[in-house]
Amino acid sequence: MNKNIQKTPWRDVNWPVFYAAWGGWVLDGFTTFVYAFIDLAATRYLLPASGISLSLTSFYLSAFFAVFLIGWGTSFIFGPLGDKYGRIKILTISIILFALGSFLSGLSTNAYEFMVFRFITGLGIGAEWFVGGTSVAEVFPEDRRVMGAGLFHSGFYFGFLFAALAELLLEPFIGFRGMLMLGGLPVVFIVYIRYKTKEPEKWEKVKKIEGNKLKARSSFISIFKKGYARSTIVASLVMAAVILGLYSGTVYVPVVVEDIIASFVTFKYPVVDFVAAGGSETAVFTILGCILMPFLAEKIGRRFTLIFFLFLMAISVFFIYDIIFYLDNLYYLFIALPFLGLGGADFAVFTLWSPELYPTEFRSSGFGAITTFARYFAAGLIFLIGYISLLVGFGHAVAYTAIGFIIVMPLIFLIKETQGKGLPEKMLETNTGKNTEVKEEKNMEDVSEN
Hints:
mainly alpha
């Protein structure tokens, strides 16, 4: 490629679609991490109200996360629907779902109601990632798309940052219920999406050509056909470890801060300040990781970029939960959090990589499968971690999740490397009753696995 060729001006990017997807992802991150800040308070209230002993707090902390992940896993149904009915329509539905689920979570009177509403929240949040990420990939010019993926994924961690600010400024006044109910605010965002955002042109072209032949069922089946099945299955397995790292490592940062402070005989500073600081520090470095990710992915490839971030997560989770947690040392914790934050950009690699593995006809289904199926597996493991925590302690149990990052690293080489290649386009048109391939990106001639 000629490096002297001028890139597409940023002003020519389809920003309304980006804002819709990024804004939804920010609100998803806010809703997810608001719970991370108040999960301990909510659990300690809901368990006695449900007739459950507080001695099971660590188990139910994991159980609530696991139910949330089951809801996220179930969101795979929106992938094929996004291929059939359009990205923006399904994006709108997903935001309504997670906003409703979060708001109702704040009204829960017992642990069982809470689990139902957390499931609904997860169902909406799960769809937002892959539908929003697919939309951004399809509307960005090819020479800006890689950076677009990093910018999009940073939204989730801006949400984390906003949640930390809400914890600092609002939680002392509105409590855990009010914090959860703030998650209902994204419904207001629907107005913008409904009236300001159009479907990506790539999807519109496919819809125009295929019409009624574009079906949700066939879209879902296609991701398991020759040339796509291996990447779908292997990427889903790798994602299981990535998810486990987030929901057993990053999300528990506020719990670690609170637990360490609780070990002090005296602590003259407001606890909420340090909890918010820990969350903010983690979020800021993950945002930096999301911005760094596109440069690494273009330089060393998708595979090695993901391995780099997984390695950071493995080392960070081990040191924070197996060592620092038991040293009760806030100073060491705040030194280690930047590395955990940077490692959290492993998710951003999937935001870039997943859309590159599938053509427009079933891109949403493929992206959705990779980011949702693994949730079921991760949910089971988090239930197991909750049980193990009763036997060996919370810190040691969470530290074991670092093993998952190491185990899946060799599997990454089974996923198709797409460095330097554009989004695959297999546009089909009806010709004398037969489907004939009329266009495919020159640099994606071979759709079989490497």
